[in-house]
Amino acid sequence: MLVAPNEDRQLDRRAARRDQTRREILDAAWEVARAQGLTGLTLRDVATRVGMRAPSLYSHFDSKHAIYDAMYAEAWTAYQEVKVWEEAQLTDDMRSCAHLIARTFFDFAIADPARYQLMNQRVIPGFTPSPESYAPAVRVLEAALQISAERGVTDPDDLMLLLAIIGGLIDQQLANDPGGDRFARMIPRAVDMWADGLGLPRTTDPKDRT
Predict the structure, then answer these.
(1) Which residues are CB-contacts of 69 (< 8 A; sequence separation ≥ 6)?
(2) DSSP secondary-structure letter at 179?
(3) Quick one: 35 and 93 in the same domain?
(4) Which letter does DSSP use for residue 200 in this model?
(5) Residue 66 forms part of a structural domain
(6) Contact at 8 Å (CB) between 161 and 190?
(7) N or C, where is the chain less crowded by C-beta within 10 Å?
(8) How far apart are CA 189 and CA 209, in angstroms?
């Protein structure tokens, strides 16, 4: 059956309104999470911020976990789009790439603790990201593995060790020096210790690391 042009436009407008409402709900959810913590997020608080009743949210998301799921996808997609993953930003030297990746992820995490917590810490009981929402995280890891393998670090555990070191520094910074730079200043030393352990050549004087 053919659809009249007016009906097409009405369908487009309804879809646009629905997308806009979902965007407003997610923006409100991020605001609540940043103000009250991820586990403090309630549907009532989210609904209030968008001028709805809490049950109305179910017209757009099946559950609170569905909101978390969409937020998770957004968080990893945002990091996936960070320019460090462009080849133009990288050199052929794995040590230099490790410094760049470490600093970029550290700064991304510290800039938004609630977002980082959702991405990397399992603090929400019963929440597991859907395969679709988990996909950006997988793509980020695959890109890092490829970058490493192309530069001679072929054991995935070696890269995972680097990521664990970065994660530890992030956790310490957020827990013990929020707003400061105590653990941020340790990044160059930590990455060089990792690279030295793998026998990667030094191409830059450690004093020049920032």
Answers:
(1) 127, 129, 130, 133
(2) T
(3) no
(4) P
(5) no
(6) no
(7) N
(8) 9
